[in-house]
Amino acid sequence: MSLNYANSKITEEQYLQGELVAEIKHEFIDGEAYAMAGASEAHNLLAINMLSELRNKLKGTPCRTFIADMKVKVANDFFYPDVMVVCQPDIARDGVYVASQSGTGATNEFEYYKQSPVIIVEILSKSTRKFDKNAKRLKYQNISTLEEYVLIDQTIAEIEVFKKKEHWQSFYYYLGDAITFESLGVTVLVEDIYYQVNNDDVLAFLQEKNQAALEETDSNPVHGAVQPPHIATQKP
């Protein structure tokens, strides 16, 4: 079936079935399906960097990290977060816990969406900034398991983190800072999140960092130099 582009109502079941065959992704809001635009290079790099940092640091824990092809269900709406982390089994409609692990041979309704994320990350763009910072944020904050909502700007090096334990107050982080995600017990450098992203802030930061390294080398010319091995001499 083909999905409607926010011009008539469809059911949740129609949306989910339609997404299985749709050539492009859609988000489902108030009974209407909205086509999603493509992402920029910076958008992709930021999402991959964030996914990699969280996934590596959470290795060996029950937490699973997902990228933009996995939906999250919020009440009767469905969104595609850029990154999200889920740390508990899914709950089926009958209240039974379902662990959606690959390789078991079993299928369940949670193979294509999650509803208990601990952290959700969105990469801001000009077209989505207002919605992500306002309407979508308010919807996400209704998820009982959500502890932190992270907004990463791709045009400047700025990350905003809304924290549930702080009554959803937001905190800002910049290049040179480290972000501790308390709900996961992991810390990530802002510099690592912006790895290979060439916006003006990142380029200026790297230039300053390289200049500081050169000045350190100039003031300490033997710093890092390989010292000759000690040669023992035999006493006569």
Shape: elongated
| DSSP summary: helix tally | 6
* H and E string: HEEHEEEEEEEEHHEEEEEHH
CA distance, first residue to last residue: 95 Å
**Widest sheet: strand order?**
3-6-10-11-12-13
Structural class determined from secondary elements: alpha+beta
* Radius of gyration over all CA atoms, rounded: 23 Å
Tell me how many strands there are: 15
What's the main sheet like?
A: 6 strands, mixed
Proportion of residues in extended strands: 25-35%
Task: Summarize the model shown.
With 236 residues, the protein is of the alpha+beta class. It contains 6 helices and 15 strands. The termini are far apart.
Describe what you observe in this structure:
The protein has 236 residues and is α+β, with helices and mostly antiparallel strands. Helices cover 26% and strands 26% of the residues. The chain contains six helices and 15 strands. A six-stranded mixed sheet has the order 3-6-10-11-12-13. The longest helix is centred in the C-terminal third of the chain and has 20 residues, at 200-219. The radius of gyration is 23 Å and the shape is elongated. The chain starts with 11 loop residues before the first helix and ends in a 17-residue tail after the last helix. Residues 100-107 and 224-229 have low confidence and may be disordered.
